[in-house]
Amino acid sequence: MSYYRKTTLTPVGELELIASDKGLSAILWEHERAIRLKRTPIVNRPEHPVLLQTARQLEEYFAGERRIFDLPLDLIGSDFQKKVWAALLTIPFGETRSYAVIAAQIGRPAAVRAVGSANHQNPLSVVVPCHRVIGRNGQLTGYAGGLEVKALLLNLESITSSQKKLSNGQNGDR
């Protein structure tokens, strides 16, 4: 299988987008690139349709114009990880869940630490919203982009959610 890449600049830094012909496979923070990119041969192809679509949707998200990503995904991970990542996709924009809630949601209430590990291994930060998972006590916990970025993303979603409530019925769920 071939993988393609494109770099895109966002308000939280430069992100490396990786896609296969099946869909988006990874969004990498700068410090992750050296580790993850050496595992698989990747072709620089910034015009790949999935990469262009991802860059556009990320731009809309950071502009407060997109709440739901509509992208083909090619998630690579264990069955357990994929269950966790699927559960993350159900967390609504502007809301958070604890690791314990996610563990219960996938039918593994005792697997809180394993959920945390799968969350940490999420290859699609922002799109698969692992930033919406917080500690049971409401504290921000680990995030591949750093806790400062996690707080920024949650704040962005909080502000956008508040604006939608005030917008008098405009549909912001794009």
Automatic annotation (TrEMBL):
Residue stretches making up the Methylguanine DNA methyltransferase ribonuclease-like domain: 4-75
Location of this chain's protein in the cell: Cytoplasm
Main EC class the enzyme belongs to: transferase
Segments forming domain Methylated-DNA-[protein]-cysteine S-methyltransferase DNA binding: 79-158
GO CC list: cytoplasm
Active site positions: 130 (nucleophile)
A GO biological process held by the record: DNA alkylation repair
UniProt key word Mitochondrion: no
Catalysis performed (reactions): a 4-O-methyl-thymidine in DNA + L-cysteinyl-[protein] = a thymidine in DNA + S-methyl-L-cysteinyl-[protein]; a 6-O-methyl-2'-deoxyguanosine in DNA + L-cysteinyl-[protein] = S-methyl-L-cysteinyl-[protein] + a 2'-deoxyguanosine in DNA
InterPro entries: MethylDNA_cys_MeTrfase_AS (IPR001497), MethylDNA_cys_MeTrfase_DNA-bd (IPR014048), MethylDNA_cys_MeTrfase_DNAb (IPR036217), MethylG_MeTrfase_N (IPR008332), MGMT (IPR023546), MGMT_N_sf (IPR036631), WH-like_DNA-bd_sf (IPR036388)
Key word Cytoplasm present: yes
Keywords: Cytoplasm, DNA damage, DNA repair, Methyltransferase, Transferase
Major location category of this protein: cytoplasm
Other facts: This enzyme catalyzes only one turnover and therefore is not strictly catalytic. According to one definition, an enzyme is a biocatalyst that acts repeatedly and over many reaction cycles.
Function: Involved in the cellular defense against the biological effects of O6-methylguanine (O6-MeG) and O4-methylthymine (O4-MeT) in DNA. Repairs the methylated nucleobase in DNA by stoichiometrically transferring the methyl group to a cysteine residue in the enzyme. This is a suicide reaction: the enzyme is irreversibly inactivated.
UniProt record similarity statement: Belongs to the MGMT family.
PANTHER family associated with the record: METHYLATED-DNA--PROTEIN-CYSTEINE METHYLTRANSFERASE
Protein name in UniProt: Methylated-DNA--protein-cysteine methyltransferase
Organism: Izhakiella capsodis
